[in-house]
Amino acid sequence: MIPLLALLPVIAALLQAAPQPRPAEPAQLPVVRPEIVRSYPHDTGAFTEGLLFDGGRLYESTGREGQSVIRQVDLATGRTLREAKVPAGLFGEGIVAWKRQLFSVTWHGGRGFRWSLPDLKAAGEWRYTGEGWAMTDDGRHIILSDGTPALRFLDPATMRVARTLNVTANGRPLKNLNELEYIDGEIWANVWMTRFIVRIDPTTGKVKGALDLAELVAKAGTTDPDAVANGIAYDRQARRIYVTGKNWPQLFEIKLPAK
Prior knowledge:
Structural class: mainly beta
Radius of gyration: 17 Å
Number of helices: 2
Oligomer: single chain
Distance between the termini: 34 Å
Low-confidence stretches: 1-9, 15-27
Order of helices and strands: HEEEEEEEEEEEEEEEEEEEEHEEE
Helix content: under 10%
Strand order of the largest sheet: 1-20-19-18-17
Shape: globular
């Protein structure tokens, strides 16, 4: 997303307790620093908005008007293998694979697109209200974020809203849920303009904990304030997690620390 005039206090929502926490919730969310398994080259020109593994292939979507593309990327080299351009004037956002198609959203205008897999040929459009930020799927629904605390669960056959899920951290609504990934029964989300990934219970909407990407941010070494952590991909076959950021020089495979 483009920069705001003032940052929202999302880190406080992650790391501090509510003034009157609900009895069923902990006073403070557990925060861990993931371990880096290995790193790979990443295109520093990519303003990453979506990251996705499907069928052993890595896909990435990028933002900014006039620069928004969806492409298949070689993990080992970071080289673009094939690419599709988002229509001119639109700001590309998240992507999700469903059966033999890839769905994408754009920030403003409510225009979503369908692309064939794996060749990324244009296959149609779909519409939604509000903004489009990111997508993932839970095997039954496509899950869409729009910058608000509400996640929409869409029927893939119609792309209509089946239900919504309000996300809270220590009882407080949590906005700015950007790139999404469904990992082992949890929704993971980058919190825009922070170094944190939150892990969301898809039934209750409660944030169960957070990942602090401070080490990865330091290794990326970017000085642009917009070059924040963004991009989570889960290789479900190999059970590997990959993360990156906007214009980062590296893409990282990570794992949670042993308990």
